[in-house]
From TrEMBL:
<dbReference type="GO" id="GO:0035861">
    <property type="term" value="C:site of double-strand break"/>
</dbReference>
<dbReference type="InterPro" id="IPR049936">
    <property type="entry name" value="TopBP1_BRCT_8"/>
</dbReference>
<feature type="domain" description="BRCT">
    <location>
        <begin position="1"/>
        <end position="87"/>
    </location>
</feature>
<protein>
    <recommendedName>
        <fullName>BRCT domain-containing protein</fullName>
    </recommendedName>
</protein>
<dbReference type="InterPro" id="IPR001357">
    <property type="entry name" value="BRCT_dom"/>
</dbReference>
<dbReference type="GO" id="GO:2000781">
    <property type="term" value="P:positive regulation of double-strand break repair"/>
</dbReference>
<dbReference type="InterPro" id="IPR042479">
    <property type="entry name" value="Slf1"/>
</dbReference>
<dbReference type="InterPro" id="IPR036420">
    <property type="entry name" value="BRCT_dom_sf"/>
</dbReference>
<dbReference type="GO" id="GO:0006974">
    <property type="term" value="P:DNA damage response"/>
</dbReference>
<dbReference type="GO" id="GO:0005634">
    <property type="term" value="C:nucleus"/>
</dbReference>
<dbReference type="GO" id="GO:1990166">
    <property type="term" value="P:protein localization to site of double-strand break"/>
</dbReference>
<dbReference type="Pfam" id="PF00533">
    <property type="entry name" value="BRCT"/>
</dbReference>
């Protein structure tokens, strides 16, 4: 398998055809795909954007390079070192400043996180309250590329949601804001899906989340312990409560008959 496997984003059909010839001439492989492919090693990006390819590539620590990387490598007759061509607000290949500087700095910042084995969404267990299957698929891919896991949703209605597995975060459409409100009361971090992109592009958003993943319960030992939630189905108006280490109980969330949590301290 060629060591250089390139995925393109932002290029027109004619440009992609020409790039295919150039990549093959250099001994690389051109990946002709409209969606992100995890088997790529490099992404040549014409214009950074909050696209699936760009964001997924950031999350998996791929080289995200300017078009000059391919052009100069062809002139050189061999692949050049990538560092000088990585998208950044300081690279000479960027030209005039772009309106979203966080887009330019994300590739290197995320690549270094992955290199240090600190994937962005590690330890996240995510529930999606999203109706559109296409959007949900893209959001799910981003979470998984970032090292998180997507909780399987059995059913969603306006009255409640059924799901399986542990939950630390939920992303919801505005139509499910009332469900998100109940989840928040239980300690699950809830956001609209745009927050996923914000975490990738804005490092402060992730640092805030990493702090929030560990919560303090003063009724226990006073030490910080992470809380995790698993689901089932029940109808009740009781408020959630936290038990001592190792104990488990059935807890339901007020106002939502389908929510049921088994909360334990780990």
């Amino acid at each position: 398998m060629p060591s250089q496997r390139l995925l393109l984003t932002g290029f027109g059909p004619g440009e992609r055809s020409e790039a295919n010839k150039q990549i093959r001439a250099l001994g690389g492989k051109f990946i002709n795909a409209n969606e992100y492919r995890a088997d790529c090693t490099h992404i040549v990006c014409k214009n950074p954007s909050r696209s699936e390819k760009f964001l997924s590539g950031c999350l998996e620590g791929k080289w995200i390079l300017t078009p000059a990387y391919l052009r100069d490598s062809v002139q050189n007759g061999a692949w050049l070192p990538e560092e000088a061509y990585e998208w950044s607000d300081s690279t000479p290949h960027v030209g005039s400043p772009l309106p979203l500087p966080n887009l330019l700095n994300a590739p290197k910042r995320c690549r270094m996180r992955v290199k240090n084995r600190l994937k962005l969404f590690r330890d996240w267990r995510v529930l999606f309250l999203v109706d559109d299957p296409v959007r949900k698929k893209v959001y799910s891919k981003l979470i998984e590329c970032g090292g998180g896991q997507v909780v399987k949703t059995v059913a969603i209605t306006r009255q409640g949601v059924r799901f399986t597995g542990l939950v630390t975060h939920a992303f919801y459409d505005t139509t499910y804001e009332h469900l998100a409100s109940d989840l928040k009361k239980s300690g699950v971090a809830c956001y609209e899906p745009v927050f996923i992109g914000d975490c990738i592009l804005k490092d402060n958003s992730v640092k805030k989340e990493e702090k929030q993943l560990v919560r303090v319960d003063s009724t226990l030992t006073g030490k910080k312990r992470p809380l995790r939630f698993s689901s089932n189905i029940i109808e009740s108006s009781k408020r959630p409560k936290v038990l001592a280490k190792g104990q488990k109980t059935k807890v339901a969330i007020r106002g939502c008959g389908f929510f049921f949590y088994r909360m334990s301290v780990v």
